[in-house]
Automatic annotation (TrEMBL):
GO terms for molecular function: peptidase activity. Pfam families: Trypsin_2. The keyword Hydrolase applies. Coiled coil: none annotated. It comes from Caulobacter segnis. InterPro entries: Peptidase_S1_PA. SUPFAM superfamilies: Trypsin-like serine proteases. One of its GO terms (biological process) is proteolysis. This is Serine protease. Keywords: Hydrolase, Protease.
Length: 282
């Protein structure tokens, strides 16, 4: 039976927020992953962009759980989430990429919504399915702290892959997406959910559904938003989760920049990349 990654990820995606005391709040997006401990015990991990937590100065944030009542009606039911112990962050950050993960105690009904670890793309996924510029992907988030409805579900957006090449992640740790990005989107999952795609050399089509990465930045030039999002590969989410267990021998990718090409006469200067500030005022 066909499964719909879009619905699974909508259920697993949560709003992260912290009031700032001046009537505004800082907002980001996260999603839950089911990743058992090395000894097999169930464990739920919250994944987001590291700068989402770093922009939150207080000890606790709010995580936007949703509860379905006996009559099937959903309601927003956020809970407090401790993110610091004094000056010590309770999340684990990837050493070179804008990715963070922390273990959370989710309500039992919400823990069931966490996506399995194998939904996350691996280093060869893009080449395996011959993915590239122009392919459509989707993203979930809470732009400027807005949700799809009072129940607190995330807003689904879509866009086209806007850069080449996409792999290997060691050389190209991020890729571009052609879609509007707003404060509050940071940390949201970017994924592909295509019903039928033919792999190179294959005679039959198959479903292609995986989490490609998470949204971490937007592109700006001279202060102007270019409607382009920057996605960090899921490979670095996997590496961050491995760091939670301090797996012996686990390797962390040190991203290698491609050798720069000589500048052409009249070439446009490099585009300035701006991390999305999470201060959505309400």
């Amino acid at each position: 039976m066909a499964w719909d990654l879009s619905v699974d990820l909508i259920k697993a995606t949560v709003q992260l927020e912290q009031p700032l005391g001046d009537g505004s709040r800082t907002v980001g997006t996260g999603f839950l992953v089911s990743d058992p401990t090395p000894d097999g015990k169930p464990r739920i991990i919250l994944v987001t962009a590291a700068h989402v937590f770093e922009k939150m100065p207080s000890m606790s944030a709010r995580i936007g759980y949703r509860i379905q009542g006996s009559e099937g009606v959903w309601r927003y039911d956020p809970e407090s989430l401790k993110i610091r112990d004094g000056d010590h962050p309770l999340w684990t950050k990837h050493p070179t990429r804008d990715v963070a993960a922390m273990v959370v105690e989710a309500p039992p009904e919400f823990a069931k919504a966490a996506i399995p670890l194998n939904y996350l793309a691996q280093d060869d996924t893009f080449n395996k399915y011959n993915l590239g510029p122009g392919d459509e992907m989707m993203a979930l988030g809470f732009p400027r702290g807005l949700s799809a409805n009072p129940a607190g579900f995330p807003i689904l957006r879509s866009g086209r892959v806007a850069s080449y090449p996409l792999a290997p992640a060691a050389n190209f740790p991020t890729f571009l997406m052609d879609f509007s990005v707003f404060p509050g989107n940071s940390g949201g999952p970017v994924f592909m959910a295509e019903g039928a795609r033919r792999r190179p050399g294959a005679s039959e089509s198959q479903e292609v559904q995986f989490v490609a990465g998470l949204l971490t930045q937007q592109v700006e030039l001279s202060g102007e938003r270019l409607e382009i999002g920057i996605v960090t590969h899921a490979k670095f989410i996997r590496e961050t989760l491995a760091l939670l267990d301090k797996v012996p021998g686990a390797t962390v990718t040190q991203a290698r920049a491609p050798k720069p090409e000589p500048a052409m006469p009249g070439a446009t200067p490099a585009v300035a990349v701006s991390a999305m500030a999470m201060g959505a005022s309400h």
